[in-house]
Design brief:
Layout: H1 3-10, E1 15-19, E2 22-30, E3 34-43, E4 46-56
Antiparallel strand pairs: 1-2, 2-3, 3-4
């Protein structure tokens, strides 16, 4: 899946980080009891993996408190395919 396809499905990322040929896009959702953060990992412009984490609520929107990207948490090689219905 390309970055353009991810943007079409999830919208623009709340935060981005780069390392060599890799890129990480962060998204979040503010919940009632906790916030959920998702990271989409790209290698050479193609989705390489997805990780999620939950954190205690922050004041205001979750987009004000994105966690720092931990490149050690990047998933091992994985192919993600999106198929429309």
């Amino acid at each position: 899946m390309s970055a353009a396809q991810v943007r079409q499905i999830l919208g623009p990322p709340g935060d981005r980080s780069f390392r060599d040929q890799s890129e990480a896009w962060q998204f979040c959702e503010t919940g009632m009891r906790q916030d959920t953060y998702g990271t989409v990992w790209f290698q050479d412009g193609v989705v390489f993996g997805v990780t999620t984490m939950n954190r205690a609520l922050v004041r205001g929107s979750c987009s004000q408190a994105f966690p720092a990207i931990d490149w050690g948490q990047r998933p091992a090689g994985l192919v993600i395919e999106h198929r429309g219905r």
